[in-house]
Amino acid sequence: MVAHVEHGDGVVVDVAVIGGGVVGTAVFRELVLRGYNVTLLEKNANVVHGASCGNSGIACTGYDAPEGSLERRCIRRAMELNPAVYRELGLPSAAVGSLVIAWTAQDLAALPHTVAANHAIDTQVKTLSAAELYALEPHLAAGALGAVFVPGEIVIEPWLIPIAYLHHGLRNGGTLRPVPTDRTKGVFVFRNLHGLVVVGPTAEDQHSREDMTNTPDVVATLRAAASQIVPALAACPVVGTYAADGAHQWVVVGGIRSTGVTASLGIAEYVGQLIGAWFRPRLAGRHVIVPYVVPTFQELAMQFDGTSNSVTIEGLVHQVTHPLTRWGLQKLLKQQQDTSRL
User: Fold this and answer.
1) Beta bridge partner(s), residue 198
2) What is the DSSP-derived secondary structure letter of residue 236?
3) Do residues 32 and 300 touch, judged by C-beta distance below 8 A?
4) Which residues pair with 16 in a beta bridge?
5) By the 8 A CB rule, do 46 and 321 touch?
């Protein structure tokens, strides 16, 4: 994402969030609720594409995240935030817990570490003997030696979470736009305040953000463009060139393992803190946050279009990109249709 952006239509926003996956929509929502003027840019026709449309639908405890890492910090913070936000947005979830099963002696020896790693956030984590495990899960394959029960892990609706984040941000003044496809507005030829004729800019890909040089090819391209616009410039000498890197106010949110859904609210809060250190939101302390509740699964199923696999939420048509959600809607729609025939 990048701070202070002007769109081609002249609209200036504080922050542009690029990418409408679960982390992008969470960051979008967080910054809007903090009072920033934010737009979300998505290159696809619908949000929740790429990795986000294949998330597991589990909010985990992240006990295996490296100790002291930013990932672990964001997961732990998100675990504090997730339950309340899920309730506020009307997101379906179920705290079913999970089992870390030991199938070998080596697995069994590692179980105390799993318990210790989880105790910092969930004191209900406990070790189960083989007998206790099979009493809990009688259909489990034979041969398990024991397990750790982690009650804090939650099953969630995988597609509705980013959709709810998006609409909460939109409800509070954020905007959703397609990603601009033009690389540059073209070459300008103008006389600056000091009487110098300026030609540019270009939009060249660089291998390093520290590389501020202009190659002879770039200079030749600009000279040719200037001469085509004003032929007399062909005979004028070049007195100097310059380049700039416009990415000094970027926050790159990437390299996330498989914990994006779990940690998304924690990541969003962390990004909000980073941007808050750069500049204060225009509406800080002066805006009222408007609540939002996502439509129920039953409501979505009633208007689910099985041909286009789409639903409409607040006038915005969304393709249901996650297979688990799509299958769930198809199942519920069939149940509703069967019931109506009775």
Assistant:
1) 190
2) S
3) no
4) 2, 39
5) yes
